[in-house]
Write a structure and sequence with these properties.
binds coenzyme A, about 180 residues, alpha+beta, single chain
Length: about 180
């Protein structure tokens, strides 16, 4: 995996550098969303290998603490998943999450991927924080497919959302420079 960075307005998005400790820090800053220690450990472990996008303030040093992270998974050539997103709470609603999703989507589209999914806590759960999370994904163009009570557990309904990735008009996506994506 190569290291590359792109500027999305105020935010600089870096792709290709894994940093499990930074992911751990971001999860710990969001106890209302990430309060289950075993799940957090699994996320941190997955951060050692999954394709990773970090957001930093555009003018900050490359080794400064990231303010947001997105971990991605490519299940098939046609389909990918957002495995984890976390943005530092002080910066919610400042466009960090949007910049991370846009960076991932640009790579996926350039690599011919057609569908992006994400799983989050479903609407039958009363949690107010995840209500905002669902609003974020809806705003990013994700559509609800199913709320299932079998995937996680009965207390944690899982909402599956998908987003068809825009393909360049008159092309199958290969007209773009191909980006290596594991
Ligand atoms: C969900 C999360 C990643 C979104 O990142 P963010 O940087 O706060 O989101 P953005 O500022 O890029 O929001 C983009 C758009 O989403 C929508 N949105 C985001 N947060 C919203 C909120 N709290 N209420 C309503 N709409 C919201 C808005 O349309 C927003 O655009 P706008 O501000 O121009 O109106 C972030 O809030 C977060 O880390 N939440 C806690 C952890 C979490 O939920 N992770 C995902 C678990 S599946």
């Amino acid at each position: 995996m190569t290291d590359c960075s792109e500027h999305q307005g105020k935010w600089s998005i870096t792709f290709g550098v894994n940093d499990a400790d930074a992911v751990d820090q971001l999860l710990r800053s969001l106890p209302n969303w990430f309060g289950i220690e075993a799940s957090n450990r699994a996320y941190v472990e997955s951060a050692r290998t999954l394709p990773t996008y970090f957001a930093r303030e555009a003018n900050s040093a490359a080794d400064s603490e990231p303010v947001g992270v997105l971990l991605a998974q490519r299940h098939f050539p046609e389909a990918a998943e957002i495995h984890l997103m976390a943005v530092a709470p002080a910066l919610h609603r400042h466009g960090v999450g949007r910049a991370l999703v846009q960076a991932l989507e640009a790579h996926l589209v350039a690599d011919g991927c057609k569908l992006l999914q994400v799983k989050t806590l479903g609407p039958s759960h009363p949690d107010e924080g995840y209500k905002l999370t669902r609003q974020f994904y809806a705003s990013m163009g994700f559509l609800p497919v199913e709320e299932t009570f079998d995937l996680w557990d009965a207390q944690n309904p899982c909402l599956i959302l998908v987003k068809p990735l825009a393909q360049p008009a008159g092309s199958d996506g290969t007209a773009f420079a191909r980006t290596t994506f594991p």
